[in-house]
Design goal:
The protein folds into 3 domains: 173 residues, Aconitase, domain 3 (2-Layer Sandwich), CATH 3.30.499; 95 residues, no CATH class; 107 residues, Aconitase, domain 3 (2-Layer Sandwich), CATH 3.30.499.10. It is 42% helix and 15% strand. It contains 15 helices and 14 strands. The model has no long low-confidence stretch (mean pLDDT 97). The structure holds FE3-S4 cluster. FE3-S4 cluster binds next to strand 10 and helix 14.
């Protein structure tokens, strides 16, 4: 690989241990993927924040970097394993909380913004078309590449942090035009009309295209919330980092000749939707995977107005969207019902499986996928049915 004078300095240890170590991570990655050089990035989003996933070895790694490392570009964080202020009310164990706060402290010392959300694009970290970035959260990677037209690979926790501490990433993968072209055309004939419908379609297509780039045709319009759910589902059942949607996403241009074609019809939609649910009565309801937008919080507040919840009900969102919800008066309505905001965290990265719940109802295909991996049973329901479950008489 070729390096600028500045990069050679960072590699030599001139700027300290954390910068040198970060450069070594990026160079190793660049060599694996055949990158010829590094490029500057303008924004980083770091995943690997929950103590549940990091463990003590992760804390040690972060502490070591925090000795002399500092973020060089805007860097936001993925959700942590708990609400950083209301963790007691969430039922989080004190030992877990103390470890989680150590993780957050290390990131704070590194100069990262303690935003803790998987929808950074709804909380002040919104890159533009053509901007090179290094993001870790897979659902946000798909959204950024596809909907915003920014350019990022699916970074792991260490490589995203290394990009933050150096302001660079290796030039390969989705940073290059040739890797952003469609690899499979998806002709949609199903009536995909809700965020849950987009989630189910994404879950089915992710399995088919694996780490390819699907090009959806036949969808006339899509709301932000629908694209958010589609992005998350594509990235969870497959290794998708980008999609195109004719008439909707900014780079949905011509499809290369000879591109494979598949179809997605009404029967496919029904099959994948049914397959996302297990048997059982939900004892925990959680929405906001990826984190709820303000519009979704408003819808939930409308559905909960004048009602009381009878089961544990978490609304996962960013602290920024919660702040906006406070201003709109949504938070009061929600909290009066007994439902809880789960800011900074979510039902997947919090240790829900250790809290005595067995069946989780959610409107997210991604959450169904990972909650099952965590040993829980799931029910995949629309948002209004999730609220109906949460308020059902006992
Ligand atoms: Fe976000 Fe948690 Fe889902 S991090 S995308 S809400 S699994």
């Amino acid at each position: 690989m070729q390096f600028t004078t500045e990069e050679k300095g960072m590699l030599s240890g001139r700027d300290g241990h954390a910068t040198k170590k970060s450069m070594e991570i990026l160079v190793a990655l660049g060599e694996i993927y055949g990158a010829k050089r590094l490029i500057p990035v303008s924004s980083v989003q770091v995943s690997g924040v929950s103590y549940k996933n990091l463990g003590d070895a992760g804390i040690e790694f972060l502490m070591e970097l925090a000795e002399d490392g500092k973020a060089r570009v805007k860097t936001t964080l993925n959700p942590a394993g708990m609400d950083l202020t209301n963790w007691k009310q969430q039922g989080i164990d004190a030992n877990f909380a103390s470890k989680q706060l150590e993780v957050i402290d290390a990131y704070r010392r590194l100069g990262l913004e303690i935003s803790c959300t998987c929808t950074p694009y709804l909380a002040g970290n919104e890159p533009h078309l053509g901007e090179h970035i290094a993001w870790g959260e897979s659902s946000a990677v798909v959204y950024a590449n596809s909907v915003l037209g920014a350019r990022t690979n699916r970074e792991g926790g260490p490589s995203a942090l290394a990009a933050s501490l150096t302001g660079r990433t290796p030039l390969y993968g989705y940073h290059l035009d040739e890797n952003r072209a469609a690899t499979v055309v998806v002709d949609v004939t199903a009536a995909v009309r809700s965020a849950e419908g987009f989630a189910a379609m994404g879950y089915a297509i992710g399995k088919v295209v694996k780490n390819g780039v699907p090009y959806f045709r036949g969808i006339k319009a899509a709301a932000l919330e629908e694209l958010k759910e589609l992005s998350a589902a594509l990235a969870s059942s497959g290794g998708v980092a980008m999609f195109h949607m004719a008439g909707v996403t900014p780079e949905a241009g011509k499809v290369p000749k000879g591109t494979e074609r598949v179809s997605f019809g009404q029967r496919d939609l029904a099959e994948v939707t049914a397959g996302l649910s297990d048997e059982g009565e939900p004892d925990f309801i959680s929405v906001g995977c990826p984190h709820c937008s303000l519009k979704e919080v408003g819808t939930i507040a409308g559905l909960l107005r004048g009602r009381k919840v009878t089961r544990e009900f978490w609304i996962c969102t960013s602290r920024e969207v919660k702040r906006q919800s406070d201003e709109k008066g949504y938070s009061k309505t929600i909290e009066r019902s007994g439902a809880k905001f789960a800011c900074d965290t979510c039902m997947v990265v919090a240790p829900v499986e250790t809290m005595g719940f067995s069946v989780v109802a959610t409107n997210s295909a991604k959450a169904c996928h990972y909650l099952r991996n965590n040993g829980l049973r799931v029910r995949f329901l629309t948002l209004d049915r999730c609220v109906a479950e949460a308020t059902k008489p006992n």
